[in-house]
Amino acid sequence: MSSKDWIEKDYYAVLGVEKSASSDEIKKSYRKLARESHPDHNPGDPKAEERFKTVSEAYAVLGDEKKRREYDEMRSLFGSGAFRRSARGGGQPGGMPFDVSDLFGGGATGGADTRFGGGGFTDLFSSIFSGGAGAGGPARPRGPARGRDVETEVALDFDDAVRGVTLPLSLRAPGVCDTCHGNGAKPGTQPVACPVCHGAGVTTRNQGSFSFSEPCRNCQGVGTVVEEKCPECHGTGGVTKTRTLNVRFPAGVADGQRIRLAGRGEPGERGGPAGDLFVQVKVRPDELFGRSGDDLTLTVPITFPEAVLGTDLRVPTLDGTVTLRVPPGTPSGRVLRARGKGVVRKDGRAGDLLVTLDVVVPAKLSDEARAALESFADQTPPAAREHLDARVRRFS
Hints:
flat, chaperone, HSP_DnaJ_Cys-rich_dom, 11 helices, 4-stranded mixed beta sheet, alpha+beta
């Protein structure tokens, strides 16, 4: 929605509330009207659909405290009876012909109104409500600007991610020019005050009752200009270069985690602080271990006799081995836990190693093994399948 909409549309009337209505009253009215005009409740009714859009537009402004305050200020200055509509769509403040569309560049010429610097009515209000001209003070010159954040990606081995590691990281990104140290001027010279704005960074123009300030176009709002440019950066103060940083990845860093290095991004402009460097971590999978939070996971195959009779199982950890007791009659898929053998947390405590047992069924057997297994089967009680057999007999 445009600034023109804010002046011409009475959103309070749209929602059927007074200008002094509370936030709860506005919300309650909006919900009632939105429910009544919702397209799902009025299929094929274009008027209801348009009404729903209008109600939603009104609530988008009045339901936001900041937007509502700016809307009220704008209506107080230019709307709500300040202009009496004329036949040509304008108004008559003080008896003088006035067309509000002229402010928006919507007159006969159809272009932006050059009286407002070519930017039209939006620029006017951005000045008024941002503390610029028309709000009792000049536009602010461009001061120091924070540098942009930089993001890169690093692949870590599984073991390094679990234990923590410090790695050199080479980046090719914008940095401060070493020749001019960021001021953009040729060595031995300095930037000078802008001859247009005289170092203020802004210029002011009078338009009748209004005074408009804007960033100086000659110096781009900086207040200084470089007469003799640095041969290395050509006056920009920055160059793209390769730099190497030693980055510490803490123990337990996870795949997809972002490490923030404050002040290691692009340098700021005009002495502003540097941005941040964000390092996206990609962890290479390990051939043995998996990870679930702070726990390590490991799948270990065991034989059928080991599952039936039980056994002591020696398994690897990240820093050695551990022996786990497999009790007799262990089913496939059972998880054994080795406490404290997982990922070390920040507070010094560690997760666990979770060992999943996988009973291996041989695809081929020798004659002796088959005979032994058949003998075992003859001595083994049948599996408890009575509830299944009962259902099967229904279809026999």
